[in-house]
Amino acid sequence: MSHGAAPLPTTQHAYTGLPALSPDELHERRERVFLVLAGLFLGTLAMLNILGVTRFLNLAWFIEGSNEWRYKLAIAVGVLPYPLTFLCTDFISELYGRRRANFVVFVGFILNLWVIAILWLGGLWPGFESEADAGTGIFFDVRKLAFGAVAASMIAYLAAQFIDVQVFHFWKRLTRGKHLWLRNNGSTLVSQLVDSAAVILITHYYASAIPIEEAEPLAPQLFAFIATAYLFKVLVALLDTLPFYAGAHWLARFLRLPPPTHMPHPPAAAAVEAGVG
């Protein structure tokens, strides 16, 4: 399999002790796994658009008085499941190639537009509120916050996800398929930094949705929000190394794909080995 292309539907890697699969069973396994990974990725994105910045959580809640700190360790509730999206794209990149991973990222962008379109239509369509209550209530609070953060989330999402896929394959080429942990963590850590900075800065300057203390200097507060979000994502990324490593090896066997540490021979070398040319 090339770095960018998906595995051929009829090609399977031979594993000692594992029987070859029929073309139908091979195709079904690969499509089902892809559907699960893509579904988790896209479902998480839809949830993030709704949750977004509706609430900020105190990461230092277990320290007495942390809610009174000058610079708070806070993350938006929408950040909680976000690292899962990068784990999913890393699995898709590893198993199905860069092109398919990029396509899923693009579909996620379209999904973001769809969610925002429904929120827009839901607010535009007349309901049963009185004129005095028009435009108020839980839905409109969520709608306002979602609209306020959508520019940040979409720009950051596209930049971070595409960077994640590109950096993943850069490390894979550089290490010739070795050091699975490096491409998993290296791609995620770079993309999460881009995502954290973009979300905080755009959400503040464009939507004014970050809980900033007006009496305190702005730059240190924004830095604290970026650093806290990034720290959370880094810790989650490091924790998902073992699941990714074990999952990539198990799924490669299950789907009869080459092991994650396997790199295909260049065409010329493969031709020589086959006695061609």
Explain briefly what this protein structure is.
This protein is mainly α. The chain has helices spanning 23-51, 83-96, 98-124, 138-174, 180-207, 218-239, 241-254, 267-273, and strands at residues 56-58, 74-76.
Q: How would you characterize the overall build of this protein?
A:
This protein has one domain (23-260). The chain has a two-stranded antiparallel ribbon with strand order 1-2. Residues 265-277 have low confidence and may be disordered. It has 8 helices and 2 strands; from the N terminus they run αββααααααα. The protein is an all-alpha fold.
Please supply descriptive tags for the structure shown above.
277 residues, disordered C terminus
Structural class: mainly alpha
Side-by-side strand order of the widest sheet: 1-2
**Share of β-strand residues:** under 5%
How many angstroms does the end-to-end distance come to? 21 Å
Helix content: 55-70%
Mean pLDDT level: 79
Cα gyration radius (Å) = 22 Å
What is the total tally of β strands?
A: 2
List unreliable stretches of 5+ residues.
265-277
Main beta-sheet strand count, sense and barrel state? 2 strands, antiparallel
| SSE run | HEEHHHHHHH
Shape: globular
Q: How many H/I helical runs?
A: 8
Number of domains: 1
Topology of helices and strands:
Elements: H1 23-51, E1 56-58, E2 74-76, H2 83-96, H3 98-124, H4 138-174, H5 180-207, H6 218-239, H7 241-254, H8 267-273
Antiparallel strand pairs: 1-2
Helix pairs in contact: 1-2, 1-3, 2-3, 2-4, 2-5, 2-7, 3-4, 4-5, 5-6, 5-7
